[in-house]
Amino acid sequence: MSKPPTSPYAIDDTRRGSSVGRKIGITLFSIVAAVVVLALVAVGFLTYTVQRSFPQLSGELAVPGLDDDVTVQRDVLGIPTITADSAHDLFFAQGFVHAQDRFFEMDFRRHVTSGRLSELFGESQLETDMFLRTLGWRAIAEQEVEALSETERAYYDAYADGVNAYLADNDGADASFEYAVLGLQNPDYEIEPWTPADSVAWLKAMAWDLRSNIEDETERGVIAADFTQAQMDELYPAYPFDRNPVIVPKLSTVPAVGTVPDLDDTAADSETAPETEADAATSSIEWSEVEGVVAAVSELVGGAGEGVGSNSWVVSGAHTASGMPLLANDPHLGASLPSVWHQIQLKCAERTEACPFDVAGFGFAGMPGVIIGHNDRVAWGFTNLTTDVTDLYLEKIEGDSYWYDGALEPLEERTETLKVAGGDDVELVIRSTANGPIVSGLTADFTAIADEPATGETDEVATPTDAPAGDYAVSLRWTALEPGTTASAIFALNTARDFDDFRGAAALFDVPAQNLIYADVDGNIGYQTPGRLPLRGAGDGSMPQPGWDPAYAWRGFIPFEELPVAYNPKDGYIVTANNAIVGADYAHFLTRDWDYGWRAARIEELIQRKIAEGPITADDLRKIQADNSSFIGMRLAAAYLDITTGHDKTDTALDLLREWDGQNAPDSEAAAYANVLWDTLAANVFVDGRENPAPLTDQGRLFLVVDQLLDTPDSEWWVNQDLGVSGMNDMLKRSAIDARERLTELQGDNPARWNWGGLHALPLVSDTFGSSGIEPIEWLFNRGPVPVGGGSSLVNATGWSLGGDFATETVPSMRMVIDLGDFDESGWNHLTGASGHTFHTNYTDQTETWQRVELTPWAYTSEAVDASTTDTLVLTPGG
């Protein structure tokens, strides 16, 4: 039978399958293409939105408010050198450049310092705002601005005008990408004009970050009821003066500030012999300063976590290859992105009395001037003084009054309104006594002290027995809660010509209290204690004090001419690393909570070795900054020499310690085990079944505590009934086994794969949106983690918290080495980069160099700056 003829309209099943498949393919392709197009559009829009705030770096830009042209030269790292004909234009341009690079950071900071974060981020920030409003940083800053001299006020006004000139043409996402993200949550937010008080208030934030021992006082107050005085003394031992150095072992006799003729009026004598030192003990000295709300505030202003401190040292030309001084500094602060520092040079085209600036160094975005650095004659560096400038007071409250000196006094009260993005306003009543604002009820720790009060005024820490009637509260006395003069000190430092000028600037630098080191082109080196340091009454401030008893009130402040000073010491070097400033026989009480001096001792050891080997170079000082030697690691290695656990894998790990060089190098497997062992041992010894166990904060303190315990095998601290451990050897064995198991969980069973750098890596987290909880947004701003070496209380001070995940929290926020023989031979670096704009070339372009503890050349002279310039922007008077 023949087939019927095929209709031309009949469907071929084979062709139909192919056609359907083709249609599906076309459809899928269309969907994918559409998704890709949308993705490309989204990427393009995102790229445009990100890049629209990148600053103009080259060409000319008309800016209303300038008097004359200003030149802004930038190198490949985006570091600006600003040259202007007048001080007004110089600081105007600095404000403009800071706003170009970092305005969102500046805006965020002023909301922090004024207790207005809720206006940005909503009710989640209310507790932080309430605490900051209670402290009143912004109000104090406004008083300090009003007290500025006419000239200094003009500098701050010019700076603010420069910021606002930038904002006039750059609003919202044009100013920074963060405003585009903020608009998703808070679309009604509007940027306010910048004011001088916005600048000055940041000094309060830095003072809080470097406030020294308030955590120690709080910890002692919280745990005091659970420990005897003898146990407290063991947990908080005195500074080891017999083994670690002090900054000024001999006090120098120098003329009183202001009695030395100005350098410009007399010929400088570079051959002047060093001043005679006086023995501190015998001479009659003639003097010719994130847990809870507190942790949250600390994170916001830079982080006062484990390891906050600093190193600085200066070496006389008698020991250097150039024959001139070398000065090194690396302040240790909480890791932040962008870095807390902004590098800059401010240069008057011709240095005159009206325009006296030729200064370069590290400053803060939002602040005019340079904080740390050098001018054409003088270099200086800072480390935290670690003196006690905060005290907690127990108060007795009845209604609207408090007890003081046997009588009821009315509480000072003020009410402030907190505006909340997306929510209702909140009224806050702030109460204060003669001792300061009441802070209990605002944070868990301060409230705990009020709930279970204890003082250290008796042999046994106990609840006060002479307290009047009423409810307990806790108030805070802090030097930064009174108007000061640091806002003026910055300009005095920037224009200092000699040691007398430097000391005059130090006299103004009241908060934060810092060690100031000095060197000049005449070959002199020096040190000055600045700051407003309290003269106390009956107590030493180490524990909460009875606020109702005026015997415990502050009596004023140590006169500046009685503060420690050193000038051209005979050893030819000065080291500061937050260690004790002077011996125990110094006339005034400074603190009982020094850093315990491990970094200072190691730096001195390395300097002395370099001196013995021959002339010291700038690179020698950089290598000292990179030193990873671990005191506690070597101490544990020695303690475990003769110990075996009976567990083969643990004993193999302990063998690593016996071959270790004691350096916390990032690629070291021995360092990884040593630090996990230290962390585990500390927790096993000090964390027990108490409601408030001994705190694991301040590793430098615990270095000394454990060092002493290792010489006391019968100490009760080696007994931990919760772990079933009854003695030192049992504790050491148990901790070695536990540490091996912990490290196996973290980095695997093969010791060859262990490394300290990966375990101790630094996450670079944006201060604002980096912890938003929204991964795509966090990805936009965060970087890292970055493997690093070092550790807490090491010279390369990358701090981490015991009992945590070993991640780096605090860092050498910047490093510099200044060569007074040739400023262009100096080097500098900081954690991230000049720009605060995510994805900008200069956002984190210094991180890799920082990670390797390397420095980049620091161009200072006009010739060197010209040679390194990659972009030049000329700001011209506009409008």
Explained architecture:
With 879 residues, the protein is α+β, with helices and mostly antiparallel strands. The strands form 6 sheets. The protein has an 11-stranded mixed β-sheet, sandwiched between helices. Strands 6, 7, 23, 26, 27, 28 and 29 form a 7-stranded antiparallel β-sheet that branches. Strands 12, 13, 14, 18 and 21 form a 5-stranded mixed β-sheet that branches. A hairpin with a 2-residue loop joins strand 13 (401-404) and strand 14. The protein is globular. Residues 1-36 and 265-290 have low confidence and may be disordered.
What is this entry, summarized?
With 879 residues, this protein is α+β, with helices and mostly antiparallel strands.
Number of helices: 25
Mean pLDDT: 89
Unreliable residue runs: 1-36, 265-290
Strand order of the largest sheet: 1-30-2-3-8-9-10-11-19-20-22
Helix-strand category: alpha+beta
Tags for this model:
single chain; 879 residues; alpha+beta; eleven-stranded mixed beta sheet; seven-stranded antiparallel beta sheet; 25 helices; 30 strands; 35% helix; disordered N terminus
